[in-house]
C-alpha cells in the first residue's frame, strides 16, 4: 500500500503495466521527457525508454490511427490524449475504426487499445479544456468507457482496462487528479469493469454520479442527512457497460432517483440512465427522477464555471424535491 | 535563412540593401510595439502568480516575429491567431484590457472592437489554418485585395489541418500567409521529434507555394519577408509559407516548467545572445535612430498603458451567471429559457 493521489495512482498503474506486459506501449504528446503535462507518466520514459514511452508528433489522428496498426500486430497501445477536448482529430479513427474493427473482422484482428484522457472542469483551466463529452463514446457501440473517482479505483480500473480485449476510453477527471490521497494497493491490482461502487448506503434516495461528480453528490447527500434524509450514493465507475444490477437494486429499495452529471443536460448519460430505470423499475418509483446537470450551453470560460456546473447545493435541492414529491 | 540584422544588432549586406525600404518612423514603431508586447507579457505573468488571471501563455522571445509580421498588415486583412499572439492582437487593434479579460476567463475578451478582423485565440492546435484559407478565398471570390494570415507554431505543422490548409491554398491559389513561429518546442517536444524535415519552410514546395525561412528574432527581416508575401497575395499570386525561427524564452504556459525538458545552455544562449528586442534596440541605437532615454520613456509609457488595461479589465462589470444563456443561439430557445430561470431562481421549475 502507498498513499497516492489519483494522478500518481495512474502513473503507478502504467508503470506496473509496462513492467508486466511487454506488449504495452505508451504514446502521446509530452508524455516522455516531460512526464505528461499532469505528470501521469512521470519517470516512465527514464525507466522504460523511448521505444515504450513515446513522445509523438502533435497529431491525435496519428496517435490513435497508428495505435490501431500496432494493436492488430499484438501491441497494447495505451494512448494519451492530452485533454479530452483535443480528441476530435482522432474521432474518425475511434468511431469508424477502433469501435467496429472487432465487428468488421469478426474477431480476426485484435483491437485492444486504451485511450486515456484528462477531462472535465472545475480547475479554472484555459478555454476549451473542460468539456465532459463522455456521451460521445458511450453512444458508440464497441467502446467501453471508464471514469474513476478515487486513486485506488483509478489504478485498479486502468489495469483492468489494459487487460481488456475491447477498446477502452479511460477518462480521468482533472478536478480529482490531486484532490486527495489514499492508500492504493501496490503491484498488479484490478477492479473489474462494469461494476459500480456503492459509496454509501441509504434508504430514501438513490444518487447516481461518476467522476468529479461523486464528491459533489456525497456533499449533497451529507447536507440532506442533516434533515434526516438517508441517501444511497452510487459511483458508476464504468459508464459502458453500466452496472444496471446495482442501480436497479438500489432504486427498488429507495424508489427515488437523483442523477448528477457534469455534462450538459441534453442526451447526457443521465438521460439514458433515466430511460433504463424507467424501463426496468418504473413500478418501484415513488417520484419523478431528477437530473442535476450543467446547462445546455457551451462550457463557459472559467469566470462562469462554478455557475455552470452542478454543486452540492443543487444536489441537495434536487434530493429535497424528489423526497417531497414522493411523500416520504 | 534570411537575416538582415545580426544578433549583435549589425545590418547584414541584405539588411543594408533593404534599409531604405522602410521609413525611420516605422522602424522606431517596431521597437515601441515590441516593448509594449514584452511589458504586457511580463505583467501578465505577474498577474497570474497573484491569482488575478488564470493560466497564461507567455510570448517573451517572440516579439520580433509577432510585431514584424503584424506591422505589415492593413486594417482590412484578416488575422487567425493561436493562443500566444498577444503582440499581434495588440498591434491589430485589440485593447489591452480585452486581452487581459480573456485570460481572466471572460468570454468578452474574445470580441474585438468593431472593424478589427481578429478571430478569437485558437486553442485546438492548427484548426485556424484552414479557416484562414477560407477568409482568403472570400477575398478572391469577391475580387477584393484583403489577405488573411494564419499564425501557428511548429507543433501545429504535424496536424492534418496544416496539410489541408496549405493544400487548399495551393490548389485555389489563395491570398493567405501561413506564418509559423518555430520556437523549437511544442510544449516539451523538440522540433526534431515533430518532423523529420529540416525546416518547415521546405514543405511549401510540395504544395507549389513559396516557402521562406527567416530569422524570427530579426524584426526587420520578418517585416520585409511579410511585406513581400502580402504583396504577392494582393496581386493574386497566391499563398506563402513563412517559417520564422525563434524561441520562447519562458515556459509553454504558467502551468508548465520548461526546465524539465530544455537544456539550460540552449536557453541561456537564446536569452543572452539572441534576444529580439535587444537586437533591434542595438541596431537603432547604432544607426542613430533612437536614444536610450527614448527607449526608457517608451518602456515607462508602455507600463502605464498596461496598468490602465489591467485597471479597465478588473473594473469591468462582473460576469453574471445568466450570461451563460446569451449568444448560444441568435434567440433563446424554450429549453434554454427554462434553464435560465432555473439558474436565476435556483429552483427546478418542472417540479414546482
Ligand atoms: C489538437 C490539440 N492537441 C493538443 C493540444 C495541447 N497543446 C496545447 S499547446 C501544445 C503545443 C503547441 O506547440 P506549437 O504548435 O509549437 O505552438 P507553441 O505553443 O510553441 O506556440 C499542445 C500539445 C491542443 N491545444 N490542441
Automatic annotation (TrEMBL), chain A:
SMART domains: Transket_pyr. This is Pyruvate dehydrogenase E1 component beta subunit. Keywords: Oxidoreductase, Pyruvate, Thiamine pyrophosphate. GO terms for molecular function: oxidoreductase activity. Coiled coil: none annotated. InterPro entries: THDP-binding, Transketo_C/PFOR_II, Transketolase-like_Pyr-bd, Transketolase_C. Signal peptide: none annotated. CDD domains: TPP_PYR_E1-PDHc-beta_like. Transmembrane segments: none annotated. Residues 4-179 form the Transketolase-like pyrimidine-binding domain. Its cofactor is thiamine diphosphate. The keyword Oxidoreductase applies. The keyword Metal-binding does not apply.
UniProtKB/TrEMBL annotation, chain B:
Gene3D superfamilies: 3.40.50.970. Residues 32-316 form the Dehydrogenase E1 component domain. Its cofactor is thiamine diphosphate. It catalyses: N(6)-[(R)-lipoyl]-L-lysyl-[protein] + pyruvate + H(+) = N(6)-[(R)-S(8)-acetyldihydrolipoyl]-L-lysyl-[protein] + CO2. GO terms for molecular function: pyruvate dehydrogenase (acetyl-transferring) activity. GO terms for biological process: branched-chain amino acid catabolic process. Keywords: Oxidoreductase, Pyruvate, Thiamine pyrophosphate. SUPFAM superfamilies: Thiamin diphosphate-binding fold (THDP-binding) (SSF52518). Its EC number is 1.2.4.1. InterPro entries: Alpha-ketoacid_DH_E1_comp, DH_E1, PdhA/BkdA, THDP-binding. The pyruvate dehydrogenase complex catalyzes the overall conversion of pyruvate to acetyl-CoA and CO(2). It contains multiple copies of three enzymatic components: pyruvate dehydrogenase (E1), dihydrolipoamide acetyltransferase (E2) and lipoamide dehydrogenase (E3). Heterodimer of an alpha and a beta chain. This is Pyruvate dehydrogenase E1 component subunit alpha.
Amino acid at each position: 500500500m502507498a498513499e497516492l493521489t489519483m494522478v500518481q495512482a495512474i502513473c503507478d498503474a502504467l508503470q506496473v503495466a509496462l513492467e508486466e506486459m511487454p506488449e504495452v506501449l505508451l504514446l502521446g504528446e509530452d508524455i516522455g521527457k516531460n512526464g505528461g503535462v499532469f505528470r501521469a507518466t512521470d519517470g516512465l520514459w527514464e525507466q522504460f525508454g523511448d521505444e515504450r514511452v513515446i513522445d509523438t508528433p502533435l497529431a491525435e489522428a496519428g496517435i490513435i490511427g497508428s495505435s490501431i496498426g500496432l494493436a492488430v500486430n499484438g501491441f497494447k497501445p495505451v494512448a494519451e490524449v492530452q485533454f479530452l477536448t483535443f480528441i476530435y482529430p482522432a474521432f474518425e479513427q475511434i468511431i469508424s475504426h477502433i469501435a467496429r474493427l472487432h465487428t468488421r473482422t469478426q474477431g480476426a484482428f485484435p483491437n485492444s487499445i486504451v485511450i486515456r484522457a484528462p477531462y472535465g472542469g472545475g480547475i479554472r483551466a484555459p478555454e476549451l479544456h473542460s468539456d465532459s463529452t463522455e456521451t460521445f463514446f458511450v453512444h458508440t457501440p464497441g467502446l467501453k468507457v471508464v471514469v474513476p473517482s478515487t486513486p485506488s479505483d483509478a489504478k485498479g480500473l486502468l489495469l483492468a482496462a489494459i487487460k481488456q480485449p475491447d477498446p477502452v476510453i479511460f477518462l480521468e477527471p482533472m478536478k480529482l487528479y490531486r484532490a486527495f490521497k489514499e492508500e492504493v494497493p501496490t503491484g498488479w491490482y484490478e477492479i473489474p469493469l462494469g461494476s459500480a461502487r456503492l459509496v454509501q448506503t441509504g434508504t430514501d434516495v438513490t444518487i447516481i454520479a461518476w467522476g468529479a461528480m461523486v464528491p459533489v453528490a456525497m456533499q449533497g447527500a451529507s447536507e440532506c442527512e442533516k434533515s434526516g434524509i438517508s441517501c444511497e450514493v452510487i459511483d458508476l465507475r464504468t459508464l459502458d457497460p453500466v452496472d444496471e444490477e446495482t442501480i436497479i437494486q438500489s432504486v427498488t429499495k429507495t424508489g427515488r432517483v437523483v442523477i448528477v452529471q457534469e455534462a450538459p443536460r441534453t442526451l447526457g448519460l443521465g438521460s439514458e440512465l433515466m430511460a433504463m430505470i424507467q424501463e426496468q423499475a418504473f413500478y418501484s418509483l415513488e417520484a419523478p427522477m431528477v437530473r442535476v446537470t450543467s446547462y445546455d450551453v457551451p462550457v463557459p470560460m472559467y469566470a462562469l464555471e462554478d455557475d455552470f456546473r452542478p454543486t452540492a447545493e443543487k444536489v441537495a435541492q434536487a434530493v429535497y424535491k424528489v423526497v417531497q414529491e414522493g411523500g416520504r | 535563412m534570411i537575416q538582415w540584422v545580426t544578433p549583435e544588432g549589425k545590418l547584414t549586406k541584405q539588411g543594408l540593401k533593404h534599409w531604405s525600404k522602410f521609413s525611420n518612423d516605422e522602424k522606431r514603431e517596431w521597437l515601441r510595439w515590441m516593448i509594449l508586447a514584452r511589458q504586457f507579457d511580463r505583467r501578465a505573468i505577474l498577474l497570474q502568480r497573484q491569482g488575478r488571471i488564470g493560466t497564461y501563455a507567455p510570448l517573451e522571445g517572440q516579439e520580433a516575429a509577432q510585431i514584424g509580421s503584424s506591422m505589415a498588415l492593413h486594417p482590412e486583412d484578416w488575422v487567425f491567431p493561436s493562443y500566444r499572439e498577444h503582440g499581434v492582437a495588440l498591434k491589430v487593434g485589440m485593447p489591452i484590457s480585452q486581452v487581459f479579460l480573456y485570460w481572466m476567463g471572460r468570454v468578452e475578451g474574445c470580441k474585438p472592437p468593431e472593424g478589427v478582423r481578429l478571430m478569437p485565440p485558437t486553442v485546438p492546435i492548427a484548426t485556424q489554418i484552414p479557416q484562414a484559407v477560407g477568409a482568403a478565398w472570400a477575398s478572391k471570390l469577391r475580387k477584393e485585395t484583403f489577405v488573411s494570415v494564419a499564425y501557428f507554431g511548429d507543433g501545429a505543422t504535424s496536424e492534418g489541418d496544416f496539410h489541408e490548409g496549405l493544400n487548399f491554398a495551393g490548389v485555389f491559389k489563395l491570398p493567405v500567409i501561413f506564418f509559423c513561429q518555430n520556437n523549437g518546442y511544442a510544449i516539451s517536444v523538440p522540433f526534431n521529434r515533430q518532423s523529420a524535415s529540416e525546416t518547415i519552410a521546405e514543405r511549401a514546395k510540395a504544395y507549389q507555394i513559396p516557402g521562406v525561412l527567416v530569422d524570427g528574432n530579426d524584426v526587420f527581416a520578418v517585416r520585409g519577408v511579410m511585406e513581400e508575401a502580402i504583396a504577392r497575395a494582393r496581386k493574386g499570386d497566391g499563398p506563402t509559407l513563412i517559417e520564422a525561427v525563434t524561441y520562447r524564452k519562458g515556459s509553454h504556459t504558467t502551468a508548465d516548467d520548461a526546465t524539465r525538458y530544455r537544456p539550460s545552455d540552449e536557453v541561456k544562449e537564446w536569452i543572452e545572445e539572441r534576444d529580439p528586442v535587444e537586437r533591434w534596440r542595438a541596431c537603432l541605437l547604432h544607426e542613430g535612430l533612437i536614444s536610450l532615454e527614448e527607449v526608457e520613456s517608451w518602456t515607462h509609457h508602455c507600463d502605464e498603458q498596461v496598468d490602465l488595461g489591467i485597471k479597465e479589465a478588473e473594473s469591468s462589470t462582473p460576469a453574471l451567471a445568466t450570461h451563460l444563456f446569451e449568444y448560444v443561439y441568435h434567440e433563446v430557445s424554450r429549453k434554454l429559457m427554462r434553464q435560465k430561470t432555473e439558474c436565476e431562481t435556483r429552483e427546478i421549475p418542472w417540479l414546482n
